[in-house]
Amino acid sequence: MSSRYRTLYLRALSPDALSRLTPQDVQVLPATDAYGDPESAEEELSALTEEATRWSAAEADRFTDVFPAVAGPATDEREEAVRRVLRNCAPFALSAGAWLQWLSSPGNSETEPVLRSLTLYATDVGVGMPLSDRGTDYRELLRRHGVAEEQPGVRLAGSEYIDGFSFRLPALLLMMSRLPDTYRSQLLGADLCLRHVGVLPPLASALRASDASKDVTGALDLGGLRPGARSTGRVLSWAAVRAHLAAEAGPGPARADNAAGRVLAGFRWALQEVRAWSERLYRETALSLHPDYGVWRLIHTRARQAAVYHSGFRLEGRPLSEWFADVDAGPTPFLAALARSRLVRPGKPENSPLLGRLIGPKGPMFRIFTEEDLAVLRRWIRLLPEPGSVLHPVPGTGDDPHDELHRVQADWPAQGSVATRVAADGTAQPGRQPAVTARRPSLTPRTARAAYLPLLSRSDAPGVRDFAYAYATRWLARSRYAMNRASNGGLPVSWDRDNGLRAWLARAHDQHAEGFEASQVALPSRAELVDSTLQLAPLIMIDGGWLQGFTDYRLASSRVGHFLFRTYWDELGNGERDLNHPRIYRALLRQMDIDLPPTASPEFTTWSTLRDESFAMPVFWLSVSRFPEEFMPEILGLNLAMELSGVGGSYRDARVALRHHGFSTQFVDLHNTIDNVATGHSAWAADAIDSYLADLPAVSGPGGEAEAWERIRIGHRSLNPPAGRSAVMYAALRARRRSPSAARLARASL
Questions:
Q1: Taking a C-beta distance cutoff of 8 angstroms, is the pair 177, 188 a contact?
Q2: CA nearest to 537, candidates 499, 502, 588
Q3: Which of 90, 187, 333, 524 could, after both became Cys, cross-link 528 (CB 3.0–4.6 A)?
């Protein structure tokens, strides 16, 4: 069972986790049928938050029992216990807050609940700064203690030092985050719980026990104040819950009951899960103080490989390889035989052959053990009792230690087992191409209009992801047609490694300004202006939609992705309703006597005054954004084209027209400033590309830059792809095949 959560954790880390969700995975997710009284929901939640806070403090105090000599000088045993806790907190702490990553989508980006939850999430990922997420804070703590497993992924999930039960809660939260339409209420309830738990109790106690860690306690408090945040995590989480419950308290009591009940259920579920995890970690850490724990865990996790090489050595008349193959029988016979063997001198590790010539430069076990492994073996031999001595019980449990060791070893992975399985089935391999069934979707406006509504949601209805991949591929193939013959102000043929894109950006802005000054375009009539403004609604109401994939936790604070998340966050107003771009545009249309239906409603896409072709570009945005890793170069190029498109030129033209006819110019004024080429979105877009290309050789090796740059140019041109029959036919042919290095470049983007 524990290996299931390791695998589920890996699947859930990937943006295309839903395409790999199995029926077995669904069975372990929390139930969704919960009901409650919306009138008393806040009162019940307040009582639960107090319970979570009290439990967290008491549990942290209880954990002090498992850290030896807290008040005395540092000891190997104490540091070993601290590292054990740090490692078992890692699957959760390295992705702390990630359960909120998909609560926003292009279809709900102007709603108050989403603005509140996105504000909270932005503090978790350190919006605006690279490597400022909560996971980075925790990585620094792990480095202080010499722990190498610092990145969520195959290596962490396959770590022999982390117990299987420590993956359950983060795996379930991450997978629930990929199903926001199903688990929105539960996720908000779970988040409120975890903010009031604050620092995980085992971690809080470990930090007290370690002089090297006490100064980071505040940074690891989920409910505390993050740098740059206006409020604490607890306050922001409450705001998100209240906004959600208020929005759900509309017509129909069942809807409000469901939301209140599910928030409460999510809170109770999270508290139950974190309590169960903490209890298991307490017993495991207490057990680890016994001298036999470390050596038996080492034997158990390495047995798979060791059995291959030790058939020639006999231990009490039995080949050592058979002892390794029979580790499921438990520790007592094996450890007793090993302690009596000629390999070990009880109490004298320095005289034991196991730690002498066997591991020396000429020995058969040279470099087999790490320094940490050797420390475990030395401690075990040093503390070996005299023959016939009685082993002490596990501290705080009263249990027989070997019975307990035999029971808990089911949660220890055999070395390489998870990594091998993952490599075999492709789980959690970023950038892997989905199994596309709809290879040739029509690029007609009517098809795009029909796809708009289902693409607004993060969750995938059957066939939606396949359609999105195929649609994006066709659109990008058309954008590639005759690219080097184009004379439309596209990106240069090669990237200037010495100077980057800033110089090109300044020249492009100058051209926009010169075009505006020389423009003699006649002002549109009022009717023409109203119609053109309306036809842009499917695009503007999902402003920033091409970047929705960069809310993904692993991308949002990365060296490249933080530019794109910051831009997305800006498009939605940084949590402020009055600055939210879709809301501003909706207000402009009301001035024009147009009252748009909700963006994510069937009425919007069937509205007769919107023409089919108005949905073509928005559907491309929504399609390509679902693959932020695989299409990262193209999205980088598209993002630059979008942010630069109106600065200094067409925004100023639009301002003149709007002002002439007496309409608000707030929308175009806002974009002309925040998209500026010095400190705004256009500058961030150029910097993101420069950062991506500068880091590429170190990740993918030499030779990838030219191909990556070509893909960026294609993405840049995709904002205005060529039309005509030749371009469409070219796209159809190109879409049948993708470059074999596409996946490699996608992985390099990380």
A1: no
A2: 588
A3: 524
List of domains in the chain: 2-28+36-289 (1.20.910), 292-416 (no CATH), 445-523+546-564+608-664+672-748 (no CATH)
Residue 367 pLDDT greater than 90, yes or no? no
Q: DSSP string covering 670-693, please?
A: HHHHHT-TTTSHHHHHHHHHHHHH
State which H helix or E strand residue 314 sits in. Answer: strand 314-315
3-state DSSP assignment of residue 665: coil
The encoded tokens of residue 706 equal 């030219």
Phi, psi of 737 (to 5 degrees): -145, 145
- Read off the tokens for 734: 């190109």
Cα 111 vs. chain centroid, distance in angstroms?
Answer: 23
- Pull the structure tokens for residue 623: 């399609």
CB 641 within 8 A of CB 719: yes
Tell me the residue type at 4: R
| Cβ count within 10 A of residue 171 | 26
Q: How many CB atoms lie within 10 A of CB 693?
A: 21
Q: How many whole angstroms separate alpha carbon 327 and alpha carbon 101? A: 41
Query: To which H or E segment does residue 315 belong?
Result: strand 314-315
Q: For tokens 């949002």, what's the residue?
A: 556
Q: What integer pLDDT is reported at residue 507 of this predicted model?
A: 86
| Token duo for residue 684 | 């961030």
Q: Spell 67-93 as b/e; 16+ CB within 10 A means b.
A: bbeeeeeeeebbbbbbbbbbbbbbbbb
Distance CA 31, CA 9 (A): 19
Q: Give percent of the chain above pLDDT 90.
A: 51
Cα(first)–Cα(last) distance of the chain, in Å? 30
Higher pLDDT, 48 or 324: 48
Tell me the C-alpha distance between 395 and 287, whole Å.
7
- pLDDT for position 179: 94
Cα separation of 656 and 108, whole Å? 31
- Report the 10 Å Cβ neighbour count for 350: 10
Residue 384: pLDDT over 80:
yes
Q: Is the pLDDT of residue 504 over 80?
A: yes
* Helix and strand element counts for the chain (H, E): 35, 2
61-75, 364-378, 486-500, 643-657: least confident range: 61-75
Query: 116: which 2 tokens?
Result: 């509140």
Q: For the whole model, what pTM was predicted?
A: 0.89
As to burial, measured by CB atoms within 10 angstroms (0-12 exposed, 13-18 middle, 19+ buried), residue 281 is: buried
How many angstroms from the chain centroid is the CA of residue 595? 37
Q: How far apart are the C-alpha atoms of 405 and 234, rounded to whole Å?
A: 39
